[in-house]
Structures are given as C-alpha cells and as structure tokens.
## 1
Amino acid sequence: MTERLDANAAGIARAADLLRAGGLVAFGTETVYGLGADATDDAAVARIFAAKERPRFNPLISHFPDADAAFREGVPTDLARRLAERFWPGPLTLVLPRRPDGTISDLAAAGLPSVALRVPHGAVTTELLRAVGRPVAAPSANLSGRVSPSDAYHVLRGLQGRIDAVLDSGPCPVGVESTVLDLTGTSPVLLRPGGVTVEALEEVCGPISHPDDYAHTLPTSPGQLASHYAPGLPVRLDAQDVAPDEALLAFGPEIPGAGLVWNLSPEERLDEAAARLFAGLRFLDSEGARRGLSRIAAMPIPRVGLGLAIRDRLRRAASPRPI
Ligand code: TXA
Ligand code: MG
C-alpha cells in the first residue's frame, strides 16, 4: 500500500520517519515530484532503482535543505559558491567532486567520483529535508523513461503499490526538472537544460558551452539517454499543421486544426508552458488513445529561456524507443 500524506506537520513527520527507516517516499519539489530515499543507505537507494525500473548506471541527485549541507558531500569551487548564493534554493543541480569523507552511497553516485547536489525551493520540501537530516536521493517519481510527474496523482498513476508514501504538496510550480551543471572540469558544462535558464546562469558564469540539439549528442551525463519522458503515443516535433489522426500540443494564440488540443500557453509564456508540459503530454496521451488517435503533434517552442528545457523534453519524448 502507498500512503497519501498531507503536506502538514504530521504528514512531513511521517514522511521523514519512513525515509529515515529506509523507505521510499515521493515528495513535491518546485520542479517535479521526486522519488526519495536515504541517499546514505545503499539498500534504500537500491529500492529506488527497482521501483522505477531505472538502469543502475544512471546516478541520482541528492537533495539538501541548504548549501552548507550540500557542500559537506561535494567540494565547491568559487563558482559553485557563487551559483549557490544566487540560485539556491531553486531548480539548479551542481555536479561537484565527491568528498572522500562524504556519506552518499556508491549506488546513488553510480560509483562516479562526482556527486549531483540540489537545494530545492519550497517550504514543505525544505522542512522534509531538514527533518530527515541526511541527503535524500530523488529522481523524478515516474517509471524510468516515462513522463515525469508534476502532481501527486501522476505519481500514484505510475508508482501506486511500489512505494511507501507520497507527500502531496500540490502541483509543481516550475514543471520541468532542474538544470544540471557540471563544475568538475575547467569550465562549466550544461548537462541538462531545466528550471534555471542558461541566460540566468551565464550572468554568473559567463558563456556556457551547450550543444544546440541535445538529442543528437553523446550522453556525457548518464541520464542523457534518448527516449525519455515518453508518452505512449509517438510525438512529432515542430509541427506547423495537424493531421486528422493527431492530437495537438499547441503553443500560442493561433492553432491549426480543431481536434484534441492542449495549449501550453495561449499567451506564449514559457514559464506557463513549462508548468503545463507534463500534464499536457499525459492528457493528450490518454485522451488521444481513447479517441483512437495515433500521434501527438507538438508546435514549435522558441529556443530561448525555459524554451530550451521544454524543447529538450519534447525531443526526448519524440526519440525512438525500445520496443
Ligand atoms: O528537478 C530535478 O532535478 C528532479 C527533482 C525530483 O529534484 N530530479 C531529477 O532527477 O530529475 P533524475 O534522476 O531524473 O535526473 C538526474 C540527472 C540525470 O540526468 C543524471 O544522469 C544526472 O542528473 N546526474 C546525476 N549525478 C550525476 C553525476 N555525478 N554526473 C553527471 N550527471 C549526473
Ligand atoms: Mg527523470
């Protein structure tokens, strides 16, 4: 059985107890729901991989209530400190050299000499992480390769019965995962575009190297696999029109066709589009399948700001998948 916990003092305390005892608890963050486990406990972390059916070579992000706690696990550079100052708490994950005296399990780090550290924004999340008092490993709370969950209902749809509890703090305001920035080399490398925009990062870092088309680059981050965030129906990108057998993921005021539509943002706001992305994919997928449609056509999203993260998720959703 999976318990649904309210995001009040009792619910947070129960969630923390379950995590400290080695259990699996999904919890809301500002980006998406995470599937949490005690990051210092190999057995607990192993349960995450099993529940998600996630390949074990893909390392997990560890979550902390503040930067001091995070930097006890990874060695911060000057730049890391400046980024933390500016963007934490918030949707930025920093990859740093792992401390030899750190407590994160080898399994959570997938045996790498680096660790991915994140201080999420949000009172409930911070309170939970404080109450646990240890790093909490948390990938998105969905089956591996499927659409990420932006509310507690999405979590239960995929993981009901496989996890101990979900702490329901309502829908996630940002809606796409954190930006992952690797600071282990001589210059910062963007491993995943996300909730903190490249433009904002560059105000602190200077120019950041990032390929334009993520789906066609080799995976430098083990999580950069093709076919991710995939709904059941295939996805067609940069659609200017829509066929009779297609559902439409729209963006902007002018929409081709008049069939099944989810408009990410009629006013072309990228923050709204990001927040509505995963719910829209889920809706078009289930409703489209029910109506016998055969594909989701996704309208073009601008290559700026949060548009980079949205495009990245759509590209992965459209990638060829294993049968
Ligand atoms: O917004 C988020 O980041 C959400 C919420 C729950 O916090 N979490 C999340 O976790 O998206 P996950 O496991 O789905 O994505 C982790 C990403 C993967 O691309 C993984 O490969 C990368 O971070 N990563 C983790 N540790 C790494 C490391 N040491 N070096 C390079 N990449 C790493
Ligand atoms: Mg994920």
Note: The domain at 3-216 is CATH 3.90.870.10 (DHBP synthase).
## 2
Amino acid sequence: MVNLTINGIAVSVEENKTILEAAKHLHIKIPTLCYHKDLCVAGNCRVCVVEQVGNHKLVASCATPVAEGMEINTNTLKVRNCRKHIIELLLTEHREECTKCYRNGHCELQALSAEYQITNQDFIDLVPDKNYTVDRLSPAIEKDDSKCIRCQRCVRTCAEIQSVGAIAVAHKGSEMKISTFFDRSLDEVVCTNCGQCIVHCPTGALTEKSYVEKVWDALADPDTHVIVQTAPAVRVGLGEELGLGLGTRVTGKMVSALKRLGFDSVLDTNFTADLTIMEEGTELLTRLKRALVDDDPDVALPMATSCSPGWVKYIEHKYPEYLPNLSTCKSPQQMFGALAKTYYAKNVNVAPENIVSVSIMPCTAKKFEANRPEMKDSGYKDVDYVLTTRELAVMIKQAGIEFEKLNDEIFDSIMGVGSGAGAIFGATGGVMEAALRTAYEIVTGREVPFDNLEIIPVRGLEGVKEATVKIEGTVEAWNFLEGAELKCAITNGLENAHKLLEAIKRGDKFYHFIEIMACPGGCLGGGGQPFPVDNEIRLQRMNALYEEDRNLPIRKSHENPEIVQIYKEFLDEPLSHKSHKLLHTSYVK
Ligand code: HC1
C-alpha cells in the first residue's frame, strides 16, 4: 500500500493507483474531462490538475501515480485559477450555443463552466475564424467539430473498446482535430454506428440523428396508424433519464407514457426476441445436424448471433470471411418491422401503407439497420423511425408527462407479449441463455439443468465468457446429439469480438455457437442509453433485466402464447418459407 495525504487527510491506496483515484477514497471530487473510467488515461485536458505541497508543481491527477509520502492539495488558489483558465481556453474553441445544443443540461463542459463560474471571456474567441465541419450524412450519428474539445475520448473508445478506429486524431497543434479516413463522412467510413463515441463524448460533438420531429408528425397525422415497439434494455434505462434511480425497471410506466403520447398500439420487441429464439435455435440445430450427421463440409460453425447491427457492420468490414457464420435471422427489431406491415396489419385490418412503425431502442446502430436496403421484405420500409431511449425521454418531457407518477399499464396485443427469455436479450449473454433454455428443452424434452433456469456462466460483464452444455437424454428426433457437448462463447464490445474471432481463426478455440453484442454490457450499455455510463451503471441495469425475467410469468420463448399463435396462424413453423421471406436475410461485404 502507498501512504499519502490529500488536503492534509491521510490515505492509503494500492500501488499504481492515481492521485485521482486516491482522492475518490476520501470523497474528494476532482473535475475531469478527458478521463473516463472505461478508457486508458490520456491526461491531455489537464482540468484535473492538483498541487504538490513543497515544490508547488501542478500535476494532472488522472495521469500521476501515487507515491509514498506524497502531499497533495486539490483546492488551492493556484489550482482553482489554473482549472478556470483551462476551461476558459477550451471554451474559446467550442461553439457556445448551449441553449440550442442537444447536450444542453447533459454537457460536462457546460457543467464545469457553471461550477467554476465562467462568466466572462478573457481569451480571444477562436470559433468565428475556424472552418469547422458538421457531418450529418449518417442515418445514425452526427459529428459537429465546433463542439469538440479534442479530449479524444471518442478516439480511445472507437479504438480501445470497439477495435474499429473509424475516428482518429488528424493534424497537429492548433490544427489538430478528430477526423475520419480522408475526413469523409461517418457514413462513408468503417463506423459501425454503435454510438459508443456518443456516450463517451463529454460535449455535443457527437450525437445521434434525431427523428423525434418525424415521430411527432406521424402521431399528429389522422391518416396514419402509428405503432411502437420497445427494446428489452429501454425499460431499465429510461427511468434514469427521467429522474428515477439507476436500473429502475419502468416497463409499466413506459407503456403508459407511450399510450399517452398517442401511439395507436404499444408493442414489445421482446415478442420478436422470442421469435428470434425459435428461428435461430432451429437454425443452430439444423447446422449441427448438417455438420454432425451429414458431414457437410460447407456448414459454417460456430454460428454467430446477428441481432446486434453494430456487430453485423463490424463483421462486414473487418471479417467478411465469417459472414456465412452469421445466423440468417434478422434482428428482433427488423423481424418486428416485417411482421408489423404483414401479420399485424392483417390482424388489425389496417392497410400496411398507412402503418408507421416506430421503435425505441437503446442503440444508435438500429437507426442504420432500419435504413438498410435489405429491410423492406414487407414490401415497405419495415421500421420507419428508430428513437433512442434518450429521444423517448425527450418526447415524454415535451408532452408534460409526469413519468414517476404514472400507473403501470400493459402492452397491447398482438405482438405485445414477451417472455423473460426475451427480456434478458438486453444483457450480454442473454441471447445465449434464452437460446439454451429453448434449444435444450427441444432436444432433451427437459429444462436446462440450471437452478431456476438461470445459466450463470453466461452472465456478467467479463469481455469473453465461455460455457459448455452437455446434452444428455435426447428425444428421438435429436438422438445424434446424445452426449454432445455444446460449446458456446459470449462477448460484448467489439474489441472482445475481435479477440474471440482471432482465437477462432488461429484454431486456438472451437465453438458451436457464439453470441456477440457490439456494446459493453450488451444493449443495456448501448449508444442510445442515458449518460453517463460505466460498469457500475451497466451492472445495475443488468441486474434489473434479470429481475424482470424472474418476475415474468413466462420465462421461455417457446412457451410465449403469442409465439405459438403466430406459428399456428401465419408462419407455420420455424424456417418455413414465410419465415425465410420475412424474418431472415443475408449480408454481403
Ligand atoms: Fe437489443 Fe435486440 S437485445 S439488439 O441489444 O436482439 O438495441 O435492448 O432491441 O433487435 O430484442 C438493442 C436491446 C434489441 C433487437 C432485441
């Protein structure tokens, strides 16, 4: 342990901790901007300076390791003046239009300016003379360089967490900027649209493309029938944005708010998450049969999940040779969209051309996914508009709905019933757990041999998780799987996906089934979820999703009565001709 004093108070911390971390032990808050718990230390903004007693040197607390006998002051006149000047200098290059900014009220620079009472400007304003770029071409993400403070949190996020590198530092000195390959639009480079850069950006330099006004217009149009689906992870994130505690489950209030906003039908993506299990589970078993019984050399294993659009785009860009490994299932969002303008339209007797299909997602890549040319199998654009959790919160606030006072309401039907298995899709490992609950039961006729259906090895925030499920006592149709050991792996965050694919490529690892989610923690940590985010927050949302599962009357996808109904009335069986037409697709490089 290392002993030091901060503001005269003694503290002992482990070696290799920084002054910033040591101060946290004493509940002393030091302001930061370029620092983020998820990322490596950059130490480039210097707003976290503190003063060493004795030599009066200022050091960046986020980048300075503690040392035995160190004496630090975090709140001297010199420190306060220095921080104030740093903030003022950052503001000279930052377009100050706070009241018109998307991040108004959520901007870390704005909060620091308020805290340090920056009321006048002593430095020359550089904004008018700079030639800033504003990129609005992507359907998912907007990048406004005039709001950028060059802290490089986005660059580190894109490289370290996502292994993508779509954004990087270009030029030097005062010309330095956060750019892309040849300064092209995010729409034209290897960006996966995951939005992790947005949730790690301290200002409004990176934001999602908003479709709030389009949805208000649709709701106001008497000739449209506007339906909404809500993703699993939204129900454990929305409350945070509306003043409730971290990880509060707000499913019933969310439904109630959506009804008050005027949606004609409030439905659940968990329903199509269950449908995905039916289709993807059957696809996996079919692939296993081809590999194990037919000795088919062309069958691609491991089969990989395909519901995370950031992951799909990543594999298209970086590992196209593994595209045959992707499940052909569309994501639950897109399955829902294809069914909304076919099955649902027929059931409620509304012309599909009059249906506006909206989805609420924790994810910015879902905006891109809905715009993919593959996603028109209903004969129309399957999902018209995708709003993030944050955008839904904006609409609820604009409508003057006192969210915390709402009573719980239930989803409409049809396509409004989801199982606990569908709910846990929003957490890393959830798709795997849901698939195993159903596939194991189909193959053996018995429940998975885990207490209370909870497959603990696939849960948690570790980057790469593995599980082996031994199949014993099969029903007749699946005799070839008797005694087989199904090897599975789960990753979250694309850097971990990269590690896993490299291990598979080298032949170090073999799996039958892998679940990959683009965002840390899975969708609950998506780029459209409330700010801020770190692992403690992800864990709270994750626990809430598992609680949601435990509290639902149906916890296995194949037992969802609306799933039974749709196969009986419309789809016939998993992987049927109709399923293939509406629910499956393929991606190309
Ligand atoms: Fe997800 Fe999915 S779980 S991808 O993370 O498969 O966004 O929540 O909606 O489509 O169901 C996201 C979440 C979401 C899909 C489902």
Note: The mean pLDDT is 97.
